[in-house]
C-alpha cells in the first residue's frame, strides 16, 4: 500500500489560482506572481513526474513507474541541493526514494529538514516510514506516533506499521489501539482485507492474555472465508491460553495434515510438544519444517529441539545459521546466548548478548535474557541492573519484576524477592508465576525466621503463602509450622484440607495425625497415622507412621501395643528418634498403670527396661521413673525405700508434680503400712487444695483407709470401731459389694446372724468369700455339714478362691466324717468380684 501525498506546494498553488480567477478583472492586472526559483521549478517538475509514476504503478506498469520514480528523485535531489531546507523538495524526495525502497536516502536527506520543521506531518510521514523500514525503531516510533495522532486517512498505513512494531515488542495494548484505529479510518474499498487486521488483533489480545477477545478476533478473521491456516493457528493459541492444551494440540495436528506446506502449524505444534516434554515428536515436526525450507524459524526451532536433547553445541550451530540467514534477528541472538550458557560458556554468552544490546537491540526479551545469563553466571549485581532496565522499558508488565525477584531469590534476599513478586502482582494481578514464586519466597523467609525462633513471623508468612498457593507442599509447610508453635486446631484444619488436594502423600497424613494428637483427638490421630502407613510402601516411611500411631495408642490406653511398636521402631532414623524419646516415657506410664491394678512385678519389669534404655537429659522423666519405682517398693512392703524414693523424686519438685503430690504419695505409703491415722492426716491436708482430677482419687483413698481401719479393728476384735468405719465407707460408695460383705461379717460377729446370712446370700454371686462364710456359719453355728460342704464347693468353683487349699481340706474332712459325696449339677458362681484393699 503506497498512498499518494498531494504536495502542499501544489495545493497552495491551486488555491491561489482559484482566487485569482474568481476575482474581478482589475485584480488580474494588479497581481503578478514572483518568478519561480530554479529549485521551485525542479520541484514542480518532480511532482508532475511523481504523479505520472504513481499513475503507471496503479496501471501495473512497474517498469515505467520505476523509471519515473528515478527521474522524480533526480529532480528532487537537484532542488534540494539548491535549497537544502526546502520542505516541498524534501517531501518529494522522500516519496520517490521510499517508492524505490531507497530508505537510507530518505533518512539521510530528510532528517536535517525535519529537525528544522518537527511539526510538519508531510515530512514526518516519509521520514518515519524510512526509519521503520530500516528497523531503526527507536527513531521511527516517535515520528510515526506523531503522524498517527493526526488521524489523517492518507496516513492509514502508519497505524499498521505501529501495530506491527508493538506486536514485535509484545505491547498488546498499544497494538490493539492502532489496529482498531486502522479499522475506523480504512476506506470501504479496503474492507476486503480486514481479515488480516483481525488476525493481528487476535495476536495482540493473546499478548494481553485476553483469551475471549482473541477468540472473537480470530473468528471474525475466519468468518465468510475458506479455512485459514493462520486464523486456525490463532484459535489453537487461544485454546492453549484457556488451558485446553490437548484440544489445541489436536487442532494443530489436523492443520499440519490439512496444510502440509504451511510452516507455522508445524512450528507451533513442535513448541507444544517441547513444552510437554515430548522431544521425539517435536524433533519430527522440526525436521519436517526444515524440509519446507531453510528458514530462520526452522533453524530456530531445530536449535530449541537440540537444546531439549541436551545437545547445546548442535543447538548453537543451528542458532548461528539463523543469524546467517537474517543478521541481527533478535530471537536468533537470544537463542545463541542461551546455547552458550547451556555449555557453561557464560562469559561468551554475556559478551554476545551485550554486543546485541549495544547494536541497537531494544527488545525486552533480549534484555531479560542478558540479565538471566548474568544471574546464572553469578553476576548478580549486573543481573539486577539489567532487569531494572526491563522494568523501566515495560513498567506495566510483570516481566521485569519477576526477573528481579529471581535475582534476589537466587541470593537469598527474601525481603527484596517478596517485594519484587508483589510488584509483579500489582501490575498483573492474575499472573500465576508471580503468585507461585511469591509463595515460595515467603516460605523460604519463614524457614529462616523459624530457624531464629521467630515462629510467629514464620507462621504469618506461611499463611500468606498458602493463600497464594493452595498446594500440598505449601499446606505441609504451614501445617508443620503450626505444629511447632502448638497451634494444633489450626494445623488440623490446614492439614485436613491438604489431604483432599491432588498429590497428597503419606507425610501430610502423618502431620495430620500429630495435629489431631496435639488437639486431644487420639482416635482420629490413630486413623491418620494408619492412613499414612497405607499411603506408602517405603519401610522407613511406614516406620515413621507406626511411631506416630504408637503415641496415639498410648493416649487411647493401648499401652502394650504402643510399647511393641516403639520397641520395634524399624529402619527409619526419624522413627528411631521418636522411639528413643517416647519409649521410656511410655514404659513409665505403663508401670504406673500396672501399679493401679496392684501388679508391682510387671511395673518393676517396665522400670527395669527404662533403666536399660536411659532417660538421657530428661531430668523430669528420670524423676518420674524414680517416683514409680518408689510406689512399687510400697506395694512390695519395702516402705523405707519407698519413702526415700518419693523424697528423691520430688526434691526439687519436677514439672509433672502437683504441689500436693508429695503429701499424697506419703499418705499412700502410710496406708500401705497400715498406719491409718497419719495417712488420714496427710490426706486431709491435701484435700484442702485439690488439683484437677484428684478429688476422685482422694475419695478412693479415703474409702481404702476406712476399709483398712475396719479390717484392723475387726482383727483386734473391736467390732464397734470396725462397724463405724465400714458404714462410713458404705456411705461414700453404697453399691460397694465388698464393703457390704464385710459389714455383714461384723454383724455376724455381733450376733446378728440372720442379717449377715441374708447379705451373704445376696452377694454370693458377686463376692466368692460370701460362699466361704455361709459354709462356716453352717458348720460352726448351725451344725449343718452337708450345707457347709455345698457352700464350700460353690466357693471353690468360683475360680476366685485365695483360700482354696484350706477350704478344700475342710470340705474333704466333712465329707469323710459324714460320708457326704459330691453333689451333682452344682454350678459355679455366675459372678466374680475382686477384693480391694
Please write out the topology.
Blueprint: H1 8-22, H2 25-30, H3 38-59, H4 62-82, H5 87-99, H6 103-116, H7 121-133, H8 137-149, H9 156-168, H10 172-185, H11 194-207, H12 211-222, H13 229-241, H14 245-258, H15 263-275, H16 279-292, H17 296-308, H18 312-325, H19 330-342, H20 346-358, H21 364-376, H22 380-393, H23 399-410, H24 414-427, H25 432-451, H26 455-468, H27 472-484, H28 488-498, H29 506-518, H30 522-534, H31 539-555, H32 559-567, H33 573-596, H34 600-613, H35 619-635, H36 639-649, H37 661-673, H38 676-687, H39 694-715, H40 719-732, H41 737-749, H42 753-763, H43 769-780, H44 785-797, H45 804-818
Helix pairs in contact: 3-4, 3-5, 4-5, 5-6, 5-7, 6-7, 7-8, 8-9, 9-10, 9-11, 10-11, 11-12, 11-13, 12-13, 13-14, 14-15, 15-16, 15-17, 16-17, 17-18, 17-19, 18-19, 19-20, 19-21, 20-21, 21-22, 21-23, 22-23, 23-24, 24-25, 25-26, 26-27, 27-28, 27-29, 28-29, 29-30, 29-31, 30-31, 31-32, 31-33, ...
Give an account of the 3D structure.
The chain has 837 residues and is mostly helical. It has a domain at 735-837: Alpha Horseshoe (Serine Threonine Protein Phosphatase 5, Tetratricopeptide repeat). 75% of the residues lie in helices and 0% in strands. The chain contains 45 helices and no strands. Helix 7 (121-133) runs antiparallel to helix 8. The termini are far apart. 42% of the residues are buried.
CATH topology of the domain at 735-837: Serine Threonine Protein Phosphatase 5, Tetratricopeptide repeat
Number of strands: 0
Q: What is the CATH architecture assignment of the domain at 735-837?
A: Alpha Horseshoe
Number of helices: 45
* CATH domain class name of the domain at 735-837: Mainly Alpha
Q: Please report the distance between the alpha carbons of the first and last residues.
A: 113 Å
- Unreliable stretches (pLDDT < 50, length at least 5) are 1-29, 823-837
Inertia-based shape: rod-shaped
Percentage beta strand: under 5%
* Quaternary structure type: single chain
Q: Over the alpha carbons, how many angstroms does the gyration radius reach?
A: 50 Å
| Fraction in helix | over 70%
Largest sheet: none
Structural class: mainly alpha
Average predicted local confidence, pLDDT: 87
